[in-house]
Amino acid sequence: MSEPLQEVPTLDALVSDPSRVFQLSPDVARTLLSGVSGLLPALVAQSSRDTGKAEAPSMPDRNLTTEEAAARFNVSERWLRDNKHRLPHMKLSHKKLLWPEARLNKWFVGQKAH
Q1: CATH code for the structural domain at 63-113
Q2: How far is Cα 21 from Cα 113, in angstroms, rounded to an integer?
Q3: Eight-state DSSP code of residue 22
Q4: What is the per-residue pLDDT across 56-77, written as a single tens digit (0 to 9) for each?
């Protein structure tokens, strides 16, 4: 078996040869998955534009790194990790978490109301 790809291929390259996905390293696959998942709602909306099949969804939720989320919501990175069981997040690996910005904002706003 060949060495996993460490470079992030273009979407065009993967669409033209889907078997290349199996050559990606897990980190590259997670990077691509994170980027593509944020595009899906906008792509669905655009693809159904002028057909009446779907309404355009609101802007896709941007996924923040732990560092970005801590800065955005004025909490420590440790606080986020310690409270992740109460917060919306995605676990990409044992150490890598992503935080959906809009859902996290909604959670913090809800906490201030209490």
Answers
A1: 1.10.10
A2: 45
A3: G
A4: 455 567 899 999 999 999 999 9
Query: In this predicted model, which residue has the larger pLDDT, 71 or 33?
Result: 71
Q: Is residue 23 scored above 90 in pLDDT?
A: no
Backbone angles phi, psi at 99, to 5 degrees: -120, 115
Question: What residues form DSSP beta bridges with 103?
Answer: none
Domain residues of the chain, as ranges?
1-54, 63-113
Q: Quick check: 98 and 83 in contact, CB under 8 A?
A: no
Cα–Cα distance measured from residue 3 to residue 64, given in angstroms and rounded to the nearest whole number: 30
The torsion region of residue 74 among left (phi > 0), alpha (psi -120 to 50) and beta comes to left
Which strand ranges, in their side-by-side order, compose the sheet holding 90-91? 63-64, 97-100, 90-91
